[in-house]
Amino acid sequence: MESAGVKGWRVQMVINGEQTSKLFSDRVIGSKQEALDAALAYRERLWEKRGEPEFAHESYEKRFYYPDGMGENSTGVVGVYRTLEKMKSGRRYPYYTTTIHVQKGQALTRARSVRRHGERAAFLHVCEIRKGHMQEIYPDRFDEARFDRSVEQHLQRIEKGYFENE
Q1: Which residues contact 47 (CB under 8 A, 6 or more apart)?
Q2: How many C-alpha atoms does 58 have within 13 Å on its Cβ side?
Q3: Residue 91 CA to its chain's centroid (Å)
Q4: Predicted pLDDT of residue 166
Q5: What one-character DSSP code corresponds to residue 157?
Q6: How far is the C-alpha of 125 from the C-alpha of 129, rounded, in Å?
Q7: Residue 137, class by beta-carbon neighbours within 10 Å (0-12 exposed, 13-18 middle, 19+ buried)?
Q8: CB within 8 A of 36, min separation 6: which ones?
Q9: Is 160 left (phi over 0), alpha (psi -120 to 50) or beta?
Q10: Nearest C-alpha neighbor of 75 from the set 150, 146, 130, 126
């Protein structure tokens, strides 16, 4: 996980209906590898304490779903969403974020600030990250043409000023 100066590993899971999330910061723990080791150890302790999640013994197969409409996704681009992040001051700032499921139990999340980079640049940067990783990880299943059409549609919404009042 990388965002707003924080780099580290996040363990998130739901076991028996109980949700857990904990961040292991590279800086606080000492290094990227030590933070990863701490996160993995924490995950193992959770599994011993609460039991492994159902998918743990199944082969990991990420499914892709391309909705006709946008549904809950504010961008219409699968895996890319726009969100408001609440700061310590209480103010909310818009971000574009993408999450890529790299392998079973491991996800990569990247975000860009609209305030810092601008609406268009933040969106395009996150889309580039997602597209590159998806082409690398799922070359036979990633529909590049559909992805590019969705990106273009959201860019049109940006050009029309859809997000200017936020």
Answers
A1: 15, 53, 56
A2: 6
A3: 22
A4: 58
A5: H
A6: 6
A7: middle
A8: 9, 24
A9: alpha
A10: 150
Which tens digits make up the pLDDT trace of 97-144?
998 877 767 788 889 999 999 999 999 999 999 999 888 888 888 889
Q: Which of 64, 92, 69 is nearest to 79 (CA)?
A: 64
pLDDT digits (tens, 9 = 90+) for 38-81: 988 888 888 787 766 554 444 334 444 333 344 456 788 888 98
* Rg of the chain over all Cα atoms, to the nearest angstrom: 18
Residue 95's beta-bridge partner residues?
Answer: 83, 113
Distances from the Cα of 31 to the Cα of 5, 7, 11, angstroms: 15, 10, 17
Cα distances from 93 to residues 13, 29, 104, 113, in angstroms, run 26, 28, 31, 8
Query: What would the two tokens of residue 76 be?
Result: 């219409």
Positive or negative, the Cα torsion across 85, 87, 93, 97? negative
Identity of residue 105: G
pLDDT(25) > 50: yes
CB 98 within 8 A of CB 83: no
Contacts of 124 (CB under 8 A, 6+ apart): 151, 155
